[in-house]
Amino acid sequence: MRLLVKTFHGVEDVLAEELLQLGAKNVVPQKRAVAFEGDKELLYRANLHLRTGLRILQPILSFRAKDDKELYAKISQHDWSKHFTISNTFAIDSVVFGEIFKHSKYVALKAKDAIVDQFRKRTGKRPSIDVESPDISINIHVSADKFTISLDSSGESLHRRGYRDGRHKAPLNEVLAAAMLKIAKWKPEIPLFDPMCGSGTILMEAAMFAKNIPPAWHRKRFSFMSWPDFDKELWDRIRDEAEKNFTSPRVTIIGADAAMLSVDITKQASLEYRLNREIKVSKALIENQEPPAKIGMIITNPPYGERLQKDNIIDFYKLIGTVLKHRFTGWDVWVISANLKALKHIELKPSEKHTLYNGPLETRFVKFKLYEGSMKIRTPRRSREM
Ligand SMILES: C[S@@+](CC[C@H](N)C(=O)[O-])C[C@H]1O[C@@H](n2cnc3c(N)ncnc32)[C@H](O)[C@@H]1O
């Protein structure tokens, strides 16, 4: 069957690579999604193992409709009892592009009416809506008059690994952090350091990756578990196989942050997820930080100057540049920031640049290779006056 994984803009190729490694066929990157061919087993595996996907959709119906009457009629023609019963709750998510249908909520409402009416006509009863935690999640994508209706096999977005406790004001999205590790080609044998680790998202994703722990390992529920064809035995086998592949490599994964709260949040998360042997974190300012290893990789997400206020964000980025140049010779440094102006003031020449999105926020993820006698972008111009 044809399946579709949603992701962030800029992450499509990394996600396609992950799907190929899982054995997916006909993998085709699209805009903010990757399509692939797979069976039920691959659908379960992908939900458990994909680090850079947000949700996995199974298209069940596509048609064209020019107005709400036609939309209602086309949805009514489909047999919804194949997918759920009146005792299941459901919810509909919709996105619309184009001029014909302008309001996604209206499209969802019309589709809901058509589904509910079909059940009511057949059984005299109707399934209930539950927008918080539905058994069945239906996804509607509209582009002009073209509708694609899918079942969302994941339910809650896959970026919710479960370790986020909500106390940090500016966390990176977990899927984005996982994508950054893959783009940077980080491997467990490379010492990893995040000197502004916040709630430790990069460190947590790295430690789970190093130990081969699937990102959704701690998650109890996926939408496919409410589908009539849910195969519990197959699911248990996939989980057992995953558990057999857990490893305990020696890794150096180190974080620091100026705020004690960030250090506490990271420690707590790593303790709860039994990653406290791999992740070490302490309170320190980047300006006082010495490299935790002779060489390694920094992947970090400094304040952008919006959610986390800094008096002078430009000066702060200059300071980051100075610290990197003087103390981290030999290291590969990756910085992600939505403050493109400030990023230039690191005053090192990037050897790679990627545009990624942290939720709705456009960011750049840039690499600086810190050779001996590092390269500056701008050499100070000296004027000769004599
Ligand atoms: C954008 S947040 C990092 C978020 C993190 N990636 C996460 O997923 O939670 C930036 C962090 O930099 C820290 N910070 C600000 N100034 C710092 C400094 N001078 N030295 C070290 N950390 C600093 C802040 O306390 C904050 O936690």
Task: Jot down its keywords.
single chain; 386 residues; alpha/beta; VC0802-like; Rossmann fold; 8-stranded mixed β-sheet; 7-stranded mixed β-sheet; 10 helices; 30% helix; disordered C terminus
Instruction: Spell out the CATH superfamily of the largest domain.
Output: Vaccinia Virus protein VP39
Named at the architecture level, the CATH assignment of the largest domain is 3-Layer(aba) Sandwich
Strand content: 15-25%
Separation of termini? 77 Å
Give the CA-based shape: elongated
DSSP, total strands: 15
Q: CATH fold name of the largest domain, please?
A: Rossmann fold
- Helix/strand order: EHEEHEHEHEEEHEHHEHEEHEHEE
Largest sheet, spatial ordering of strands: 2-3-1-4-8-7-5-6
Coarse structural class: alpha/beta
- Helix fraction bin: 25-40%
| CATH hierarchy class name of the largest domain | Alpha Beta
Unreliable stretches, pLDDT < 50, 5 or more residues?
A: 375-386
